[in-house]
Please model this.
Amino acid sequence: MRAVRRLGAEAVALVLATVIFLVPFALMLLTAVKDQTQAVDLDFAWPTSWPVVENFLAVIEARDYILLRAYVNSTIITVASVTLLVIFGAMAAFVLQRRPGKVARLADFLVLSGLIIPPAVVPTIWLLQALGLFKTLPGMILAEVAFHLSFAMLLFRAFIAAIPRELDEAAQIDGCSGFRLFFRVIFPLLRPVTITVILVSSVNIFNDFVNPLYLLPGDENATVQVTLYNFQSQYNTQWNLLFMDIVLITIPPLILFVFFNRKIVAGMTAGAIKG
Model:
């Protein structure tokens, strides 16, 4: 009886997952390969013509190849932000885990606050303007690091808790201290959770729409998600080109998720168990 219930629950979950994820994805692909007249219907009708190459070239060439510039900007922001997240998140988590006390408890409260409280756009703009970093890629990178640092620290700290302190003491006896202790002894052991942080943060930052929209305005600073506005207007929305744009900007995160899904789950599970 339990096996039947379990099989039924799995079947229901599979159907729900299909409806929630695969049906919208199928609609997106079908609309992306239609012409503008047929794409207006936004239905599952089979395309009467297949202007795939035309739609692809129109998206690439729109507004003086803004999508290509957006890919470059998004790649720079993602790579730089994730690199800083891994380094600072792991270092901060190691210090907080190894040195408990009032300061550590205050830091834990701030980390949890960073996970719960949503980012405030207007104060962030004021701060970036005061630093002279508003509308610049370095300012956007620092903002992304600040917004995602709490999550990275939480994962790193849960994993570091499983590393015995005796390993630190042995390394210190051998002459390691400070940065050498962390980078030569501790950091190599964080490979599973580091992969998880890299993959999850890369997808989140690459797909970020709101923060670049407000903190990085201007065509020269456009990111891939902001290019969705290219084909959307109050009176005329080119649905075929809009969905083709969505397909193109969905490919990199989708590839990461498909090929590294097991590593993401393994890193999170290891951190949860060892924490």
